[in-house]
């Protein structure tokens, strides 16, 4: 099979080459991949430690070529979207059936490849906030891939959504996705808020935690800023109006139900009830510049690489 393999000797450290076909474990299906969607975090956290010849990649969509030997998961010929911690950027992927979402017939598999990390993170992180109907939920990094899904899902869950986006020009689009308020940073927030989803981390995280009211929760799903968070003395202490606040870390593949969540997300997108945000799409054989743009977080949305 062909794959994007790690090669430190070439610009970008990735090249298209032949690689051994994966051998599925009994609980894995073999998927013929038709589209992949890279994430900046793969370049930030995975590529630096991967050895030459390795195949990385989290998000991939395609069609089941061989069903799992243990009888779990979808049948041969089923269109699917898949999540894994590696080996997604290849023509064939052996993937745990618990991490496979089935896709409605006829749906665009390129669009479905954008769902596992971004849509799955937004859905599962929002659940960590508890019931959000009628509550004020702040989403930091709202113009990013996770943030756009989170805005839509939080609004559908009945929350009053406060979107934080660095680019003021994204305000109209975020309101169209369901945001009730759009601000560019902590100074625009009227406290208290009931929950925070933060994809950015860094210096402003302390301010978003400080905006939480009693019983509020901040779920940290990413650290895109690359900066440190410094809390002022006493910032983590409670007072009568802000007791029982918490910061919760998050890891998407922890816990059950991922396949079910991906199947639901795929159905919502196929039916037009949930919008993806692809800003670049093309053949993977000519995607070097696009991969660099993803690596450097220069794309205001998702890239989809179609496997020719």
Automatic annotation (TrEMBL):
Domain of life: Bacteria
Gene Ontology molecular function terms on file: oxidoreductase activity
Signal peptide: none
Domain Enoyl reductase (ER): 9-305
SUPFAM superfamilies to which the protein is assigned, alphabetical: GroES-like (SSF50129), NAD(P)-binding Rossmann-fold domains (SSF51735)
Protein's name in the database: Zinc-binding dehydrogenase
């Amino acid at each position: 099979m062909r794959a994007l393999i790690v090669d430190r000797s070439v610009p970008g450290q990735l090249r298209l080459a032949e690689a051994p076909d994966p051998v599925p474990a009994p609980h894995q299906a073999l998927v013929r991949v038709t589209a992949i969607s890279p994430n900046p975090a793969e370049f930030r956290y995975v590529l630096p430690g991967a050895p030459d010849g390795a195949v990385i990649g989290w998000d991939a969509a395609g069609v089941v070529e061989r069903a799992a030997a243990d009888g779990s998961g979808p049948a041969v010929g089923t269109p699917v979207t898949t999540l894994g911690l590696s080996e997604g950027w290849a023509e064939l992927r052996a993937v745990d059936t618990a991490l496979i979402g089935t896709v409605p017939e006829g749906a665009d598999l390129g669009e479905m490849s954008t769902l596992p990390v971004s849509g799955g993170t937004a859905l599962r992180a929002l659940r960590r906030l508890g019931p959000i109907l009628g509550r004020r939920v702040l989403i930091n990094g709202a113009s990013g891939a996770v943030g756009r899904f989170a805005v839509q899902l939080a609004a559908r869950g009945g929350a009053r959504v406060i979107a934080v986006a660095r680019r003021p020009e994204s305000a109209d689009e975020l309101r169209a996705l369901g945001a009730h308020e759009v601000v560019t940073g902590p100074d625009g927030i009227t406290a208290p808020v009931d929950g925070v989803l933060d994809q950015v981390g860094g210096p402003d995280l302390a301010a978003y935690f400080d905006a939480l009211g009693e019983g509020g929760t901040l779920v940290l799903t990413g650290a895109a800023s690359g900066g440190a968070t410094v809390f002022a003395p006493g910032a983590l202490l409670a007072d009568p109006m802000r007791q029982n606040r918490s910061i919760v870390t998050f890891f998407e593949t922890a816990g059950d139900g991922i396949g079910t969540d991906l199947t639901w997300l795929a159905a919502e997108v196929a039916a037009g009830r949930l919008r993806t945000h692809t800003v670049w799409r093309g053949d993977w054989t000519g995607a070097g510049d696009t991969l660099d743009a993803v690596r450097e977080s220069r794309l205001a949305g998702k890239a989809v690489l179609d496997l020719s």
